[in-house]
Structures are given as C-alpha cells and as structure tokens.
Amino acid sequence: MGRLIGVASATVLVLVVGAFFGLGAVRQVEVQPAQPNTLSSIDVTATTSYSFTPNIFQQVATNSTIPVSFTDASSLSYTFTIIGVEGWVVPRTYSSAQILALAYGSAHPNLVNINVSGSGTVSGSFTSPGPGWYEFLSTEAGQFQLGMYGFVAFGENLPANLTTSPREYVVSFTENGLPSGTNWSVSLNESTRSSVSSTITFEEANGSYLLHTWDVKGYLSYANLTTLNVTGAPIGVVVYYNAPAAGTYFVTFVQSGLPLNVIWEVQLSAIINGTTGPGGISQNYFGPTHTLAGGISGVENGTFEWTAYHLSLPEWPIASYYPFPSSGMVIVNGSSVLIHLTYRYSYPFAFDVEGVPASVPVTLQIPNETVTGTGPGGYLVMIPNGTYSWNATAPGYQTQNGTVSVQGMPESNVREVSFQTAPSTSSPPWAWIEIAVVAAVIVIGAAVFLLGRRKGGSRIGESEASTAPSSPPPTQQPPSPPL
Predict the structure, then answer these.
(1) What is the mean pLDDT of residues 445-455?
(2) How many CB atoms neighbour CB 142 within 10 A?
(3) Nearest to 28 by CA among 160, 201, 209, 188
(4) Which of 108, 362, 377, 410 has the largest count of CB atoms under 10 Å?
(5) 456-470, pLDDT tens digit by residue?
(6) What is the pLDDT of residues 208-255, one digit of tens each?
C-alpha cells in the first residue's frame, strides 16, 4: 500500500480502506509539535488511566532497527502494537474482536507487538518502514475503547489535519424531587447544562471533574459527591432535591463570575424590632448556587439582612473578587427567595477626603458601592476595571462629584476630595439688624401718625361747636300762685 501524499489523498485512502474493512467514522487525533531530530528509538509507558505516554512519535528513522522500551506503570497487562496499515485511523467503533483480527491477522501484519504484564519494563525492537504514519494501540480487551492508542510517523510529521480526541463516556444526571417541567442545572468543571426534563447528560473522557448541582428556587439540591471520576465506563448520578419543611422557606443565592472551585461565603441574619438578631446563618460554599436555610428546615417568614463577603485568598492580598451587590435586605413572606450575585475581579481605589472636621459624617458613593465614615482620611472602595461616576456628601458641605477610571492597580488609583462649606440658607446677623431697624422706623412712624391724628381731632370738635346753632333757651315756668 503506497504512502499518502497530502490531506486529500489521505481522505480518499481512508474511504477506500474503510470500505474494505467495514470501518465506521474516523477518529480525530491531536498532533503534537514535531521532534526537531530524527528519533532512533521509542520509549513509551502504559498509564493507570488507560493511555500511552507519549501517544505520538514523529520523525522516527526509516528503514532502521528501532529499539522499543515499553513500561507498565500499573499492575495490568497491556500491549504496544503498531497496526500494519499506513495512513489509516482505526475506527473508535471497533470491538475487541475486530481489534484482535486487525492486529494479528495475515492481511496486514503488525510492525511490532510487545506485551507487558504487571509493573516493569519490557524491551524489543522492529525494522521501521519507509516514510509514512501508523496507529499503535493495546489489543487487551476493552483498552482501545478506553483510549489506549497513539500514532507514529516515520521520516515525517503526522498530517496537520490529524487531531486526537480520547474516547468519551456518557455521564447522566437524573433529578429526584422537583415538580415536572422545572428547569434545573448541573455543572461539570466549567461546563453547565440545563433541562426541564428529568435527565441531563454529558460526554466526558477519562478524568476527574468537579460536580456542582444548582439549587432551584424553593428546593435544596445535593448529590452526595463533589468530585466525579470517569474511568472508562458510563456513569449515572441521582440529584436529589428537597423542599423546605412546612412553614419555612429557602433563601437561595446564585453567583456568577468566580473561578472554578473557589469558596464564597454568605451570611443571613434575622431583623427583630429593627435590630439585626444575634448569630444568623453563615456558610462557606463553592459552586454556582448557595442556599441559606438553617439546614433542611428552611427559615420562617421575616425580614433578613444578608451579606456576601469578598474573597480573602493568599494569592489575592489586595485585588480580589468582590460581590455586587455585597449586602441587602430580603423579606421572606410565604415563598422562597432567589438572589443573584455577580463577582468581579476588583482593584482598590482610594478617595483622600479633606476639609471636614473629624466628627462630620462622610458618605462616598460609586455604582454598586457605598462607603461611610467620619472626618478626613482615606476612603477605600473596590471596583473593577472601567470608568465610574462618584459623589461624596457631608452635612453642611458642598457635594463633591466626578469620574474615575480603573485599569488594574497603578499608583494613580487615588482621588483627592476637598470639601468646602456650603452656602448658608439662613440670614446673617446683620440682616436681622436691618429688619429690626426697619420695623422700629415703621412702628415709630405709625405712632407719630396716630398721635397727630388724635390732637387734630380735638381742634375740629371745637370749631364745630362754635358754628353750630345754639340750643333753644329753656322754657320758663310760670311763678307759683301766692298762698
């Protein structure tokens, strides 16, 4: 069989040989960078995760005796078998019986076959062919299907369009406890899938995966494990959902923005008679959701204050992930509550306040962040990269405002805030003196006017009396008769 030249020729040959052998779909193989020098030997190891390390060899010497060192890193049996078909990828659908017929049949004898059983190293050798590439695999039952295969190229590099992908297995999740048609979600590492049916499936290669089951409003989820291991077989996981006890409810927080597997914390405290009650529910968690419920029982109706804390990690001594919003009030009244948080990688920005006495309260506001204090000094806020408007207020002083830009954590992340006394809205003392003087003048003038009016009225009365007609004289009585 001739060597393939170029990608198009390789495609034709795969189709022809596939028809001859009854092959299915072609697997993809990831090509590693070419070795700069010609290889004169092959050292390969069978790992405990059913794989070859390395799984690709390029620029191996042609028409030469090639020593092989095959190491077993586990206690199982493996083979290192180079299939004798040049330029061809063995279909992933091949069964163990088909693999045996292909590797040990007379139609296309293998180039080399070395067996190991138990930990240790076995040596062998073979005569390499001319330029071309071949697949190698383990013929032990089921191992090819688990990902034990690789490729070797003699006198050349592997084709650029050849990409490897290890075998994937179905990982299925089945929910238990949710009403029919409820949307629910599961995350494996950073991949999240949702469904309104009772099953969610992933296809994953061998390896370990972080498992997160999302709480649903009014339901608390648990799957009894946080790490899922795929080891060459399908996996089924049941995700149980519990409703709260009668008369109680769940407060569920859903976060976004945090790196994978980073712990975050939320606290929930009841407010009684306007005061936050002692204690409260505070829990650490990792994953996309966090339900504060006081256990499976839930919380009763009431008003609660909640706080989401920023992350204090050694690798993030100053800049860190901060939640937005970071606190708030929630009222539980006959139903469970869902609260969304967004964590953003934030940097410190300092506002240097001056111009106010130590006893004056100061409030500094920036979008999604409010900082309060008293008097002058540094007011620190944590904000992500971007441009933001801000304002600062203090009783009796003019409001200060402006914009700031954050790009990482340079020394310029400082803004001076200089307060100035606000213009007084009350009248100054001299204004009151003017008002008093004017009022006095008005009063005195009015008094003089009234006095003058009173005196003038008497004179008028006398004049009227002199010009008025006289009263008739009194009637004289006749004298009394003499006795």
Answers:
(1) 63
(2) 14
(3) 160
(4) 362
(5) 544 334 444 444 444
(6) 888 888 888 888 887 766 788 888 778 899 999 988 888 888 888 888
DSSP-derived 3-state class of residue 56: strand
- Can you tell me which residue has the tokens 């004017």? 438
Q: Which of the two residues, 189 and 174, has the higher pLDDT score?
A: 174
Cα–Cα distance between 90 and 137 in angstroms, integer? 9
pLDDT above 70 coverage of the chain, percent: 72
286 versus 298: the higher-pLDDT residue is 298
The H-or-E segment that residue 338 falls in is strand 337-354
Tell me the residue type at 240.
Answer: Y
What ranges make up the beta strands (E) of 355-399?
361-366, 369-374, 377-383, 386-393
**CA 25/CA 10 separation, integer angstroms:** 14
Domain ranges of the chain: 6-166, 168-242, 346-418
| pLDDT recorded at residue 190 | 80
The reply to whether the predicted model has a pTM over 0.70 is: no
Report d(CA 54, CA 86) in Å as an integer: 20
The neighbouring-strand residues paired with 406 are: 386
Residues paired with residue 404 on neighbouring β-strands, in sequence order = 388
Q: Which two tokens stand for residue 55?
A: 């799984």
Q: What is the per-residue pLDDT across 394-433, written as a single tens digit (0 to 9) for each?
A: 999 999 999 998 888 776 788 899 998 887 665 555 555 6
Q: What is the pLDDT of residue 380?
A: 86
Q: Pull the structure tokens for residue 18.
A: 């596939």
Q: Say whether 168-242 and 6-166 share the same fold.
A: yes
Quick check: 9 pLDDT over 70?
no
Q: 6-166 has which fold?
A: Immunoglobulin-like (2.60.40)
CA trace torsion 53, 57, 62, 63 (10° rounding): 20
Cβ count near 398 (within 10 Å): 15
SS3 content of the chain, % helix, strand, coil (to 5): 15, 45, 40
Please report the pLDDT score of residue 26 as a whole number. Answer: 40
Looking at domain 168-242, its CATH superfamily turns out to be Collagen-binding surface protein Cna, B-type domain (2.60.40.1140)
Residues 337 and 245: their CA atoms lie apart, in Å, by 15
Question: What does the angle CA 147 – CA 149 – CA 155 come to, to the nearest 5 degrees?
Answer: 150
Question: What's the rounded Cα separation, in Å, for the pair 460 and 448?
Answer: 19
Structure tokens at 246: 């009668």
What pLDDT is attached to residue 40?
94
Asked if omega into 325 is within 30° of 0 (cis), the reply is: yes
132-137/184-188 β-pairing:
unpaired
Which CATH number applies to 346-418? 2.60.40.1120
In the predicted structure, residue 452 carries a pLDDT above the cut 60: yes
Bridge partners (DSSP) of residue 196 are none
CA distance 221 to 285: 13
